[in-house]
Design a protein that fits this description.
Elements lengths: L1 H18 L7 H32 L4 E2 L30 E2 L16 E7 L2 E8 L5 E8 L3 E2 L1
Parallel strand pairs: 1-6
Antiparallel strand pairs: 2-3, 3-4, 4-5
């Protein structure tokens, strides 16, 4: 939604600038500079709003749950972005289906099979590809989401 508004504002600004070309230093030039300053302030405020609104959606997510039991085949370690991860870590028992309500990242590609799973106290976006879907890696993560 914000992208469409931003494109509309920029298009209006460009069309206005092209249609009102005047010699430098004239009175309309001062008005154009004032319009540029106002447009810059609007665009900056929209950018700051997007940053703050996006951050506030998933700051301090605390989910209380039973202690984590490591599935067979899942290496007990603290995973990082882009780490390879065994498919068994994506155990259905620990799948997180309501991740969108926290504003979590959906992933960069829609071509891989991917889901969020609880792994230890973290929420990991596990993305799998390959013939049997065995090539899996961590595409997104949120630390210390789960608490006992």
């Amino acid at each position: 939604m914000w992208a469409a508004i931003l494109v509309g504002i920029v298009a209006f600004y460009v069309i206005t600038e092209i249609s009102e070309r005047k010699p430098a230093g004239s009175k309309p030039d001062q008005q154009r500079n004032a319009r540029r300053a106002a447009m810059g302030a609007i665009l900056l405020s929209m950018l700051f709003y997007q940053i703050l609104e996006h951050r506030s959606r998933f700051v301090d997510v605390h989910i209380y749950a039973a202690p984590y039991v490591w599935p067979a085949g899942c290496e007990n370690k603290r995973y990082r972005m882009a780490d390879e991860i065994n498919r068994s870590c994506g155990n259905n028992k620990y799948e997180i289906t309501d991740y969108r309500k926290y504003g979590w990242y959906d992933g960069s590609s829609k071509t891989y099979e991917k889901s969020y799973f609880r792994v230890s106290n973290d929420a990991l976006l596990i993305s799998c590809s390959g013939f049997a879907g065995d090539d899996c890696f961590v595409e997104g993560l949120y630390r210390d989401v789960y608490h006992q």
